[in-house]
């Protein structure tokens, strides 16, 4: 493909991408990002490792 045809193809694709606007499900996005008071953060690794502060207190 020559440079002129290649540039025209890229220009066409760029125009299509510029005007592209996908539909967004804002309700699903709000559920995913929303703040939940009843869900507390649980550290799944907390029981496997000792706290560093406890180690320092035992050495002193």
List keywords for this structure.
elongated; single chain; mainly alpha; 3 helices; 60 residues
Q: What portion of residues belong to β-strands?
A: under 5%
What's the end-to-end separation, in Å? 75 Å
Total number of strands: 0
Helix content: 55-70%
Largest sheet: none
Explain what the structure shows:
By secondary structure, the protein is mostly helical. The protein contains three helices and no strands.
SSE topology sketch:
Blueprint: H1 3-19, H2 26-33, H3 52-59
In short, what is this structure?
The chain has 60 residues and is an all-alpha fold. It is built from three helices and no strands.
């Amino acid at each position: 493909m020559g440079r002129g045809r290649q540039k025209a193809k890229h220009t066409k694709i760029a125009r299509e991408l510029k005007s592209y606007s996908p539909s967004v499900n804002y309700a699903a996005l709000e559920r995913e990002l929303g703040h939940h008071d009843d869900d507390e953060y649980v550290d799944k690794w907390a029981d496997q490792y000792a706290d560093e502060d406890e180690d320092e207190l035992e050495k002193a």
